[in-house]
Design brief:
By secondary structure, this protein is mainly α. The protein is built from 15 helices and 2 strands.
Length: about 575
């Protein structure tokens, strides 16, 4: 709506324009008269211009001007009247809205005209439910993609830590972990982990949801009804692949590819899915039901024990059975990392992906509670990683009087593993302390393995196994529930049993988490031995000395070198 000054300015402008047009026409009309007069004078004769003709022309154009002016004034007045009517209508609507707002603010008052009918209320609720589901789907798809991208970080760290002549072989195992792990998770792993048999949590899964069956239902007309199972399958698949990849670092540079492939199949279709079934799949380590360990159950928010310790123990068993790399402890100077830039890049990629790993384990983003929990998890994750990296850097400097960048990278990863279980139920100060102690655990384990002659090229067990166990224990010890009686755990911002907090829940959770550590370590170790040991005896596990000397890339791959130099 234009202001009065704008309308007035427009009126003046149009009147001036009409006047100028009329005067211009008058001048044009008078030109022939003056031209005739000039012509007569040039010929030597003086011809008088009739005054009556000039006056008639002036009167004619003045009348034309007045008519144009009157017409324009009528248009402006009509526009002004219309604007006033619109302004009055808007003011009336504004008044009505103010009255409705005042009525709504009064206790118990309802505006009959604004009240939703039962049909409208149901439609509104359905719309909100759709938006919540869409938000949760977007969140988990994004976080699952971040976790999958961690595979690039694993590949960079492992390849950079090892020698140049084995880079392609390491990359191959990382690629196979993802591809083969996907097939195994699709065929059986998901069903064993989350597929409830006959709808009973206490019953072990059978063939429900194998090969993606049952994820959707369809009528005979081809009308499909989807479920949330595809979302859970994708997000949890990324975790399964990560657990398998951890093992590849522990046996790098001396394991045969076929033997490692067999272990990957067992890991992603049996060892890891059963661990998930015990825990996140509402198995016996969860709490609440008669068949479960106790009322409270375990607390492992994103998988320090379930994912990282499972993979770390598998790496330790594999490294022990396959044996050290040829001349590893006789000539240690030959086994330095060939590319520290790759190690640093891989560490940053893993750190970045860890926000999907930990924050995504809220499994939702459709409420303020889940959103604030994701933010708390992100803060704890960042603090623990940073503190632990600095601790290891200082420890290595104290030991060698030199800056060890590789050690700091592993320290950052150790801090990330340590906070993965407790990231959703501890305060930020506790996260810093967990990172400090995680650095000590990592360094002690790494040094100890070297002293007993176990060759772990990337410290897979020290980072993932030992710090995974520490993080699982820390999730119970540092829970932000009141004292050593109440426990928050999976309840997040609230306590177990809220509003009446369960007394003794902290002790139950501590017991459950200790049992979780023992159970996962024992299960993974036994099955890893059952796979690796027969392969070693049969000659399908360890590469020959000649192959190790020449390099896996030269003997087993085409092209024979990862890098091309002039």
């Amino acid at each position: 709506q234009r202001s009065r000054s704008a309308v007035r300015g427009q009126h003046i402008g149009h009147v001036t324009m009409a006047r100028n047009i009329a005067l211009g026409l008058l001048v044009v009309a008078a030109l022939p008269l003056f031209a005739a007069g000039d012509g007569a004078s040039a010929g030597g004769r003086n011809v008088a211009v009739p005054l009556e003709a000039v006056e008639a022309s002036i009167e004619q154009f003045q009348a034309l001007f007045e008519r144009a002016k009157a017409e324009r004034l009528r248009e402006i007045e009509a526009a002004r009247t219309q604007g006033s009517e619109q302004r009055a209508a808007l003011q009336q609507e504004l008044g009505r809205l103010r009255e409705a707002a005042v009525a709504l603010q009064q206790p118990g008052a309802e505006s009959e005209g604004r009240r939703l009918s039962s049909t409208d209320a149901a439609a509104h609720a359905a719309t909100l439910a759709d938006l919540a589901s869409a938000t949760d789907h977007i969140w988990l798809l994004l976080c699952g993609a971040l976790v999958m991208f961690m595979q690039a970080g694993f590949a960079m760290v492992e390849a950079g830590c090892c020698r140049e002549k084995n880079v392609q072989n390491i990359m191959l195992k990382n690629l196979v972990d993802v591809c083969v792990g996907t097939m195994c998770w699709w065929a059986w792993g998901w069903s064993a982990a989350y597929g409830i048999a006959d709808g009973e949590n206490s019953a072990f899964a059978n063939n429900h949801q194998t090969f993606g069956m049952g994820f959707t239902s369809a009528t005979k007309d081809g009308i499909f009804t989807p479920s949330n199972a595809m979302l859970g399958w994708f997000f949890q698949w990324a975790f399964c692949s990560a657990a398998a990849t951890i093992v590849s670092g522990g046996v790098a540079e001396r394991v045969q590819f076929p033997g490692y492939l067999i272990f990957t199949v067992i890991m992603t279709s049996w060892i890891y899915p059963i661990v998930v079934h015990w825990t996140w799949g509402y198995g016996w380590l969860s709490g609440g039901d008669d068949y479960q360990i106790n009322t409270t159950g375990f607390m492992d928010f994103a998988g320090s024990g379930i994912v990282h310790m499972c993979g770390g123990v598998g790496a330790l068993v594999g490294a022990t059975i396959v044996g050290p790399r040829l001349n590893r402890f006789e000539n240690p100077e030959e086994f330095v990392p060939h590319s520290m830039p790759m190690v640093v890049l891989g560490t940053f990629i893993l750190w970045f992906g860890w926000y999907g790993f930990n924050c995504g384990s809220t499994l939702a983003m459709s409420s303020s509670s889940s959103a604030t929990m994701a933010a708390q998890v992100a803060m704890n994750t960042t603090i623990s990683a940073s503190v632990c990296g600095l601790v290891v850097l200082c420890l290595r400097f104290a030991m060698s009087r030199k800056y060890d960048i590789g050690g700091m990278c592993n320290g950052i990863l150790a801090g990330l593993v340590s906070i993965t279980a407790p990231c959703g139920n501890v305060e930020c100060g506790s996260a810093a302390l967990i990172g400090i102690l995680g650095g000590l655990v990592y360094q002690a384990t790494s040094t100890g393995l070297q002293k007993v002659g176990i060759d772990d090229p990337i410290d897979a067990f020290a980072v993932h196994g030992a710090c995974g166990a520490w993080g699982t224990l820390a999730a119970a010890l540092f829970d932000w529930g009141t004292g050593v009686d109440y426990f928050n755990g999976w309840s997040g911002w609230s306590c177990v049993g809220a509003p009446d907090c369960t007394s003794g829940a902290w002790g139950e959770a501590l017991v459950a988490n200790i049992v979780e550590i023992v159970a996962i370590a024992g299960w993974t170790a036994v099955w890893s031995i059952l796979v690796f040991l027969p392969l070693r005896v049969a000659g399908f596990l360890r590469a020959s000395d000649d192959t190790q000397n020449d390099g896996m890339d030269t003997v087993k791959h085409s092209p024979t070198k990862a890098y091309t130099r002039d």
